[in-house]
Amino acid sequence: MKNIAVIGAGTMGNGIAHTFAQFGYKVNLIDISEDSLSKGIATITKNLDRMVAKEKISESDKSNTLENITKHTSLEEGVKNVELVVEAATENEKLKLQIFEDLEKFCDTNTILASNTSSISITKIASVTKRADKVIGMHFMNPVPIMKLVEIIRGYNTSNETTEIIMDLSKALKKVPTEVNDYPGFVANRILMPMINESIETLYNQVAGVEEIDTVMKLGMAHPMGPLQLADFIGLDVCLSILEVMYDGFKNPKYAPCPLLVNMVQAGKLGVKSGEGFYDYSESRKAEHVSAQFK
Ligand SMILES: NC(=O)c1ccc[n+]([C@@H]2O[C@H](COP(=O)([O-])OP(=O)(O)OC[C@H]3O[C@@H](n4cnc5c(N)ncnc54)[C@H](O)[C@@H]3O)[C@@H](O)[C@H]2O)c1
């Protein structure tokens, strides 16, 4: 495999494009928004600069990586002659089903179609194509160039051959691929989201404050970051939507999103990206201040 298309130049898409390009793959980075493409390339450049400053890569590695990436706003153009597509567009089922229907039309019949979705069923995404055996989940973690895990999700019809190719490819990116089956939340979010939801419930029930809950989990369980702060980084809207997918998928009340989470999303308090969640990011991006509503 040499030629890859990445759909979506946002948080995850630019990290995925960066990673493939750094390992010598030719990447077509596709987004409907010219602005997102420019911001995506700017982020990749900034992250490469940081790696050069830390002497993890050389100046020539940086320029080779950037040369390996080509921007596209047309899906049809961007997926021409690629062997793999990694879709990392906005987490919206209708949007992803439309993208995969289009990919079926525009891609070579042998092209493998992967999705970076956090929660949408790979089996359902595959069902709108005529190549369900070649559709797979490739769930990278944020920030992609740094995080080692790739959760590899086998849809109901994903073939052994496709799984092996994607496992090997992930290893070629110096990642640790881990194979899981396609059920709501896969493994990562099925375990992480109930913990985040329970920490919000603990706050909602006034058992302890934001800092106390995060301190217990950081110092008591050796987590690098408390669950409330992690929720802010992931995005409270994203946490809510993943919990809703699990709640609907399992029909089990244990995944019901905490009313406080629902309220905060409705109030536009989405965490780092909106400037406020459980912490206030308006003055410092370091989450030093608990949001005034919890003081
Ligand atoms: N943010 C995370 O921590 C994280 C972690 C793992 C997986 N994911 C998953 O990765 C995917 C992307 O998430 P993100 O956080 O990067 O989102 P984002 O909002 O940062 O970026 C999404 C990008 O998709 C683009 N887009 C929307 N419709 C498109 C289309 N039809 N064609 C091409 N581009 C289109 C948008 O313009 C935007 O630039 C989602 O499925 C999400 O669940 C996110």
From TrEMBL:
<dbReference type="InterPro" id="IPR006176">
    <property type="entry name" value="3-OHacyl-CoA_DH_NAD-bd"/>
</dbReference>
<dbReference type="Pfam" id="PF00725">
    <property type="entry name" value="3HCDH"/>
</dbReference>
<dbReference type="InterPro" id="IPR013328">
    <property type="entry name" value="6PGD_dom2"/>
</dbReference>
<feature type="binding site">
    <location>
        <begin position="8"/>
        <end position="13"/>
    </location>
    <ligand>
        <name>NAD(+)</name>
    </ligand>
</feature>
<feature type="binding site">
    <location>
        <position position="273"/>
    </location>
    <ligand>
        <name>NAD(+)</name>
    </ligand>
</feature>
<keyword id="KW-0560">Oxidoreductase</keyword>
<comment type="similarity">
    <text>Belongs to the 3-hydroxyacyl-CoA dehydrogenase family.</text>
</comment>
<feature type="binding site">
    <location>
        <position position="96"/>
    </location>
    <ligand>
        <name>NAD(+)</name>
    </ligand>
</feature>
<dbReference type="InterPro" id="IPR008927">
    <property type="entry name" value="6-PGluconate_DH-like_C_sf"/>
</dbReference>
<feature type="domain" description="3-hydroxyacyl-CoA dehydrogenase C-terminal">
    <location>
        <begin position="185"/>
        <end position="281"/>
    </location>
</feature>
<dbReference type="GO" id="GO:0070403">
    <property type="term" value="F:NAD+ binding"/>
</dbReference>
<dbReference type="Pfam" id="PF02737">
    <property type="entry name" value="3HCDH_N"/>
</dbReference>
<dbReference type="GO" id="GO:0006631">
    <property type="term" value="P:fatty acid metabolic process"/>
</dbReference>
<feature type="binding site">
    <location>
        <position position="91"/>
    </location>
    <ligand>
        <name>NAD(+)</name>
    </ligand>
</feature>
<dbReference type="InterPro" id="IPR036291">
    <property type="entry name" value="NAD(P)-bd_dom_sf"/>
</dbReference>
<dbReference type="InterPro" id="IPR006108">
    <property type="entry name" value="3HC_DH_C"/>
</dbReference>
<keyword id="KW-0520">NAD</keyword>
<feature type="site" description="Important for catalytic activity">
    <location>
        <position position="139"/>
    </location>
</feature>
<dbReference type="InterPro" id="IPR006180">
    <property type="entry name" value="3-OHacyl-CoA_DH_CS"/>
</dbReference>
<feature type="binding site">
    <location>
        <position position="31"/>
    </location>
    <ligand>
        <name>NAD(+)</name>
    </ligand>
</feature>
<protein>
    <submittedName>
        <fullName>3-hydroxybutyryl-CoA dehydrogenase</fullName>
    </submittedName>
</protein>
<feature type="domain" description="3-hydroxyacyl-CoA dehydrogenase NAD binding">
    <location>
        <begin position="3"/>
        <end position="182"/>
    </location>
</feature>
<feature type="binding site">
    <location>
        <position position="118"/>
    </location>
    <ligand>
        <name>NAD(+)</name>
    </ligand>
</feature>
<dbReference type="GO" id="GO:0016616">
    <property type="term" value="F:oxidoreductase activity, acting on the CH-OH group of donors, NAD or NADP as acceptor"/>
</dbReference>
<dbReference type="InterPro" id="IPR022694">
    <property type="entry name" value="3-OHacyl-CoA_DH"/>
</dbReference>
<feature type="binding site">
    <location>
        <position position="142"/>
    </location>
    <ligand>
        <name>NAD(+)</name>
    </ligand>
</feature>
